[in-house]
Amino acid sequence: MNIPQSDYPRIVIVGGGFAGIALAKKLKNKPVQVVLLDKHNYHTFQPLLYQVATGGLEAGSIAYPIRKVVHEYKNFYFRLCHVNEINTKSNKIIADIGELRYDYLVIATGSKTNYFGNKEIERNSIAMKTIPQSLNIRSLILENFEQALLTDDEFERNALINFVLVGGGPTGVELAGALAEMKNAILQKDYPDLDISKMQINLIQSGDRILNTMSEKSSAAAEKYLKNLGVNVLKNIRVTSYDGRTISTNTGVVLETATLIWTAGVQGAIVNGLPASSLMEKVERIKVNEYNQVLGFPNIFAIGDIAMMTTEEFPQGHPMVAQPAIQQGKLLGENIIRFIQKQEMKPFHYNDKGSMATIGRNKAVVDLPNYHFHGVFAWFVWMFVHLFSLIGFKNKAVVFLNWLYNYIRFDREGRLIVRPYKKKSFTSFTFDEI
Amino acid sequence: MNIPQSDYPRIVIVGGGFAGIALAKKLKNKPVQVVLLDKHNYHTFQPLLYQVATGGLEAGSIAYPIRKVVHEYKNFYFRLCHVNEINTKSNKIIADIGELRYDYLVIATGSKTNYFGNKEIERNSIAMKTIPQSLNIRSLILENFEQALLTDDEFERNALINFVLVGGGPTGVELAGALAEMKNAILQKDYPDLDISKMQINLIQSGDRILNTMSEKSSAAAEKYLKNLGVNVLKNIRVTSYDGRTISTNTGVVLETATLIWTAGVQGAIVNGLPASSLMEKVERIKVNEYNQVLGFPNIFAIGDIAMMTTEEFPQGHPMVAQPAIQQGKLLGENIIRFIQKQEMKPFHYNDKGSMATIGRNKAVVDLPNYHFHGVFAWFVWMFVHLFSLIGFKNKAVVFLNWLYNYIRFDREGRLIVRPYKKKSFTSFTFDEI
Predict the structure, then answer these.
(1) Residues 338-397 in A contacting B (C-alpha not used; CB under 8 Å)
(2) Which of A2, B203, B342, B434 is the most exposed place for a label (fewest CB within 10 A)?
(3) What is the pLDDT along chain A (434 residues), one digit of tens a residue?
(4) pLDDT number for residue B326
(5) d(CA A201, nearest CA chain B) in Å
(6) Contacts of B192 in chain A (CB under 8 A)
(7) Closest Cα in chain B, distance from residue A416 (Å)
(8) What angle, 0 to 180 degrees and rounded to 10, lies between the N-to-C axes of helices A216-229 and A170-182?
(9) Do residue B416 and residue A59 have CB atoms under 8 angstroms apart?
(10) CB atoms B190 and A65 under 8 Å
(11) Nearest chain B Cα distance for residue A90, angstroms
């Protein structure tokens, strides 16, 4: 990998998400050599991916070049690569661009979509965890509409403009709301020769309420907002199969659709090489102690979504969202220096600042630790928090201007099919000659 | 294609570039049915493609959804498709989504890259005529730098960061200038572990001056600007071959490079079905009369780059740039209605408003019909003209803000490798273990 030798100990960080970047910032100009690895050359602000998918924001506005974050840091190296394996015996990571020895390793690889072993759904659905996936969803929505124009078969046309989202967490809820606004404000105008009232947005939730990590009050408010926007919220239903055309469920409900967007679960994005005893089954997260040290490996740490730190308050580990990742990254930045200097480390305590979700224009739900509210003010709070969490002045300014423009004009201009999404052909058209 | 029958005559426009959009706007709510076809669902503002390629602007800022241009027009249909053939006997076009009868056909398919028959160069080089191509160049520049970090072989590393642009027209000149600014302001900071002074930008021109459609004064000024920015301008040289690694030329000059960007020529993007007698050989443009009517076909018109209208002043046809396309589109909008109503059409006269090119920060050259100037003021004129030529308020605002930010901060934030460019592997690395 062409990383020079250094007199300082080498810390290798795998992953430039919320946790990895928070850690990297803390290690700026400290007496260590840091090597940051990621498969993308940018940091993704995942909470706004759904706005890229629905054309409200450009990809560049919610991503930030990692090299720009770290370019002034001394003794700091970034490499764009896929890490395939960890060799804990020789203290090396093995990547597609070569091997690298570490003194300390930090695994911050985040999470990936969990299909719960259903390969058919994995093959036929589309997820929304990365920028390329969001752009694929954007293209797919528009391509479906272009296709729907071409068919005389009503059944087929309706399936093309039926969007089914599986998973009633924040991602599914926010995407459903944005799709509904896209339907009402944009698609209606852009496709005057289609009957847009036939466009369906179905949100399927396995449990008895959406946003089930939030308060019941917020769940109820969010569901009401979605219904008012025209989204069908289907609860207590599990999707059992999807062949690219027909969704079957455990209750007998059947949906015909060309598009299933799967947001129903996440699991840790583990790297090969750790023993099974260090991993939590099913969720694929790495067991760590209160210092984010991987059990059995004092010089290996895991932070963020991938880390499973069980406490009395969080027997299932911390929620797989940005805040615990950022807080763990920051603390580890201090702890790893302490550890190297043989000082005592500080245990991690999660400071839960609350959670929130937006459903659309003037509509959001916010749960603070002791207070729940929703409506216009909640929506302003949501915008304010997300705007100020973005990295970089220009991204903040561009996102703010886009939101202002979209709000005033009821518009979303990001509707270019720049990277057509290659999907197995849903249908073969009969070409009418007129 | 599911276009309804209409009592009005049907005009089919193939292509939503400058000419096609100018025509479409003129036909708004006229007593005709209009069907606009394009292979993209957006209009591209080609003069700024080089800024997308070098990370100064996002793709969405220089493209505009075609459906948004026409969504309020009555009796107007857009279809996303590739047109494969024209059948002039049955008055039909044959596309990948079906066939369509026309009463009047307007070919506005523009131009494509001309490799002058050299298949090897076509295979190994990259062009910059479309947004996807610009994004590919952007990814390629960054991917080359990431690769260059990984090799110990100096020869290989230098080839990876040697950028060769063939063609000294506005596209080559503007891209060379932007690359030089990227080198000085960005790449130097982003790749502190590379010796950026080894990065080369070579601009190869076959003739004895660059910008040879502009005044000699402007050519000289542009060349001086480029040299001051560190670009090697090589004149009177023709590239004869490029195998993906080594460029050979007619003068014996040999260049080793992983990247050849070809901007040395354009030709008409003709559609099959017109007889050879209607076409101008080599340049592949369609011969038209002074009303843009295709010779031999009274109900077929061609406008913009694809149209070859020879006049005393323009014996080789009009320049293949935006202005003649826009002017022809506008005039044809009036003429085609006159033609349908059996009135006399007006002949086309090109109003040459001048030409300009920018080389970088504070550096541009402008040729007005009777006056040539360059420098800071020329650069402001260039920015003003390009800003106000963009379609849509938001694109104007976003581009303006980006330029302001880039100017103040010497920055270009669009450096995400979102769509990795798959190139035949230039090299195989030896993986060093440290």
Answers:
(1) 392, 394-395, 397
(2) B342
(3) 899 999 999 999 999 999 999 999 999 999 999 999 999 999 999 999 999 999 999 898 999 999 999 999 999 999 999 999 999 999 999 999 999 999 999 999 999 999 999 999 999 999 999 999 999 999 999 999 999 999 989 999 999 999 999 999 999 999 999 999 999 989 999 999 999 999 999 999 999 999 999 999 999 999 999 999 999 999 999 999 999 999 999 999 999 999 999 999 999 999 999 999 999 988 999 999 999 999 999 999 999 999 999 999 999 999 999 999 999 999 999 999 999 999 999 999 999 999 999 999 999 999 998 899 999 999 999 999 999 888 888 888 888 888 888 888 777 777 888 877 765 445 433 333 33
(4) 97
(5) 22
(6) 71
(7) 6
(8) 20
(9) yes
(10) yes
(11) 12
- Using alpha carbons, select from A331, A349, A341 the residue that is nearest to residue A27: A331
Distance CA(B220)–CA(B210), nearest Å, equals 8
- Cβ neighbors of A6 (< 8 A, separation 6 or more) are A33, A75
Q: For the purposes of burial, counting CB atoms within 10 Å of the CB of A276, is it exposed (0-12), middle (13-18) or buried (19 or more)?
A: exposed
Q: Which domains does chain B have, with CATH numbers?
A: 10-113+266-340 (3.50.50.60), 119-264 (3.50.50.100)
Length of chain B: 434
Of B5, B132, B395, the CB nearest to A434: B5
pLDDT of residue B48: 95
Angle between helices B393-409 and B376-389 (to 10 degrees): 150
d(CA A280, CA A288): 10
Q: How many residues in chain A?
A: 434
Both tokens of residue A10?
């080498």
> Is any Cβ of chain B less than 8 angstroms from the Cβ of A408?
no
Residue type, A278: S
Among this protein's residues, is A174 annotated catalytic? yes
Per-residue exposure over A156-175, b if at least 16 CB sit within 10 Å of its own CB, e if not: bbbbbbbbbbbbbbbbbbbb
Instruction: State whether A150 and B2 contact (CB < 8 Å).
Output: yes
Tokens 């989204």, residue?
A231
Instruction: Please tell me the distance from the alpha carbon of residue A227 to that of residue A196, in angstroms, as a whole number.
Output: 17
**Residue B31, phi then psi, degrees to nearest 5:** -75, 55
pLDDT (0 to 100) of residue A431: 33
Contact A98 B429 (CB under 8 A): yes
- ipTM of predicted assembly, 2 dp: 0.89
B5 vs A: CB within 8 A: yes
Give the model's pLDDT for residue A15.
98
Q: How far apart are the first and last CA of chain A?
A: 61
Contact A397 B405 (CB under 8 A): yes
Residue A432 has a pLDDT of 34
B417 contacts in chain A (CB < 8 Å): 40-42, 80
Put simply, the answer to whether B394 touches A413 (Cβ < 8 Å) is: yes
Selecting among A143, A174, A181, A223, the annotated active-site residue is A174
Q: Which two tokens stand for residue A208?
A: 């008895």
Dihedral sign of CA atoms A412, A415, A421, A426 in order: positive
Q: Which chain B residue is nearest to residue A401, measuring alpha carbons? A: B398
Whether residue A41 and residue B394 make contact (CB cut-off 8 A), yes or no, is: no
Q: Is the pLDDT of residue B422 over 70?
A: no
Which chain B residues are closer than 8 Å to A151 by Cβ?
2
Point out the residue among A58, A64, A417 whose CB comes nearest to the CB of B41: A417
CA distances from B206 to A332, B24, B246 (A): 59, 38, 18
Residues β-bridged to residue A267: A112
